[in-house]
């Protein structure tokens, strides 16, 4: 039996913006083989000390050539209770309205907390966190 969801695109894992209380741990664009609809799926990790109750993101869908595939749009993950270290939102599909989309960019715009004011994104870019390097490779002074 064929898989129901075909993975069309995967974002760079472990994206972070300076000062953000979370990491975009993973993301993918999926095509439902039964309905032919496109869905985005995101996974976040709370790296802050406060409980996250909601996240607002902006998605910018692009076509196979890197051009726009519809207008950018916002999506909100609501009614969360993500503690420090928790992964969350990975089971919430986001409908992508334009069937020509083959990739997307994602930006976290705001994060609401259970106990106070929200974090609002600055203009810092969301970039992939570099992979960790073992100390033996990072330092070649033979002290280890």
Protein model, in words:
- This protein has 144 residues and is mainly beta.
- 3% of the residues lie in helices and 47% in strands.
- It contains one helix and eleven strands.
- It has one helix spanning 135-138; strands at residues 5-10, 15-16, 22-32, 38-46, 52-62, 73-77, 87-88, 94-96, 103-113, 116-120, 127-128.
- The strands form three sheets. Strands 1, 3, 4, 7 and 8 form a five-stranded antiparallel beta sheet that branches. Strands 6-5-9-10 form a four-stranded antiparallel beta sheet, with no helix packed on it.
- Strand 3 and strand 4 (38-46) form a beta hairpin.
- The radius of gyration is 17 Å and the shape is globular.
- The termini are far apart.
- The model has no long low-confidence stretch (mean pLDDT 93).
